[in-house]
Specification:
This protein has nine helices and eight strands. By secondary structure, the protein is of the alpha/beta class. β4 (about 125), α7 and β5 form a beta-alpha-beta unit. Bound molecules: pantoate. Pantoate binds near residues 9, 10, 11 and 39.
């Protein structure tokens, strides 16, 4: 423990996945700041932004209970006081999650830049659940030589292997059982097998199921040392994403 600052940026709607991020922050620093800011720049539709769950009192209690020393819920004006200097997530920002949500990752980087400028953390903690976000933030920090260490925390899953997400609350108990197919697919040994497993669940509508090289986020090649399965799709209109390191054959 030292005088460093660990920072956990969130948009609220906190669940056990966020608690794991805060607990990791507490292991690193005596000062743990959790921000709660629903960033309009990363929503592609005003409807989604309006529907995003907001319960500051509940979130504040969860964050403090998990060990945060400060919960900070800035206003829009505090984060974006004037003209917004947009950050770019590059071509990767238009693929996978970025293809479905245009401008999303630029919006994430833009708010992260502001949050980092205001908090000046030594460590910033992100979940592996949003692996593409984590990759884009890490690359941007390194390219821009931002003096912060990005710490990744493994995805928290329920007892049946479903990755925790605030969106899971929109699934019925039967749909949650269907969602288990994603975890099953990620335990496959190849992309084909992964897709076959997903196709076996009639309620699951596939967006993408790919294998990527963890170091480039590009396709797996002969040089790849670590590969990861990434999956996105919908169950009854609820978008679900997950990923896992794979001992893949191809
Ligand atoms: O992962 C999230 O909750 C958001 O994208 C983040 C990192 C807090 C930026 O708004």
């Amino acid at each position: 423990m030292n005088n460093s600052i660990s920072f956990v940026p969130t948009m609220g709607a906190l669940h056990d996945g966020h608690i794991a991020l805060i607990e990791r922050a507490c292991e690193l620093s005596s000062t743990v700041i959790v921000s709660i800011f629903v960033n309009p720049l990363q929503f592609e539709s005003p409807d989604d932004l309006a529907k995003y769950p907001r319960d500051l009192l509940r979130d504040r209690n969860i964050a403090l209970g998990a060990g945060a020393t400060k919960v900070w819920a800035p206003s829009y004006e505090e984060i974006y006081p004037g003209e917004i200097t947009k950050q770019s997530s590059g071509q990767l920002g238009t693929l996978f999650e970025g293809a479905e949500r245009l401008g999303h990752f630029d919006g994430v980087l833009t708010v992260i830049k502001r949050l980092f400028d205001l908090v000046r953390p030594d460590y910033a903690i992100f979940g592996e659940k949003d692996f593409q976000q984590l990759f884009i933030i890490k690359r941007w920090v390194s390219q821009n030589q931002i003096p912060v260490e990005i710490i990744a925390v493994p995805t928290i899953r329920d007892a049946d292997g479903v990755a925790l997400s605030s969106r899971n609350s929109r699934l019925s108990p039967a749909e949650l059982v269907s969602a288990q197919v994603i975890n099953k697919a990620l335990r496959s040994k190849s992309k084909d097998e992964m897709r076959k497993v997903l196709a076996s669940e009639p309620k699951f509508e596939l967006d993408y199921a790919e294998l990527i090289d963890e170091e480039t986020f590009g396709p797996v090649t002969a040089k790849t040392s670590l590969s990861r399965g990434i999956i996105a799709g919908w169950i009854n209109g609820v978008r679900l994403i997950d990923n896992m390191r794979m001992e893949a054959d191809q």
